[in-house]
Amino acid sequence: MNAPQRFQPNPRVQAAIEYGLSLKLDGRWETNGRGQIIMNPPIGLLHAKRADKLIAAIRASLPDWRVWPEVGIHTADGVKAPDLALASPQFGESTDRHGFLLQAPNICVEIMSPSNSWEEMRHKSLLYLAAGAVEAWVCDESGEMHFFSGGGEMPSSQIAAMIPTSLE
After folding, report:
1. Which of 22, 79, 135, 159 reaches 20 to 30 Å from 90, CA-CA?
2. Which secondary structure element, helix H or strand E, spans residue 57, and what is its range?
3. What is the mean pLDDT of the chain?
4. Pair type for strands 107-111 and 135-139
């Protein structure tokens, strides 16, 4: 599952990206594989606090890694933007002309908001793994961390063992 898919431009997704960028949309948006633009509401304070705690833990555990919030990644189902994308120093940055990554970095992190479902988080995790991520992490609504690889859910990260399993 974590063998990266070679990026194949989807004309519908490309058209949605061009259209979305031409609108100069305020706020967060992604696309799906059908070329639809998906608007996301602003994050709440609890979401931001969890991201802050997670970033601090990541910087302590993986000090040489880059942490990118909300970077667009081409996936098999359009361009998705995880809350955090973590790239090792060896990660090769390859982007399209808009700056969206053509391959997922080592770890993609989603922090659930009230508008998210577990079905959506599982789907996005699989997309990130298929696009080249080694792990996908999900912080659920209670602050519990869930770690996934191509082999399924793991009790902790195999890359960053010092990441807490709860952000509360």
Report:
1. 79
2. helix 45-61
3. 92
4. parallel
pLDDT given for residue 24 in this prediction:
87
CB 84 within 8 A of CB 109: yes
Residues 93 and 87 sit within 8 Å (Cβ to Cβ): yes
Order the strands of the 135-139 sheet from edge to edge.
66-69, 84-87, 107-111, 135-139, 145-149, 152-154
Task: Report the alpha-carbon distance of residue 135 to residue 151 in Å, rounded.
Answer: 10
**Which residue in 27, 33, 47 sits closest to 115, CA to CA?**
47
- Return the half-sphere exposure (C-beta side, CA atoms, 13 A cut-off) of residue 19: 12
For residue 47, is pLDDT > 60?
Answer: yes
**Residue 168: per-residue pLDDT:** 82
Decide: helix, strand or coil at residue 121: helix
Report CA-CA distances (Å) from 147 to 49, 126, 163.
Answer: 19, 12, 10
Residues in the chain: 168
Residues 50-101 have pLDDT tens digits of: 999 999 999 999 999 999 999 999 999 999 999 999 999 999 999 999 999 9
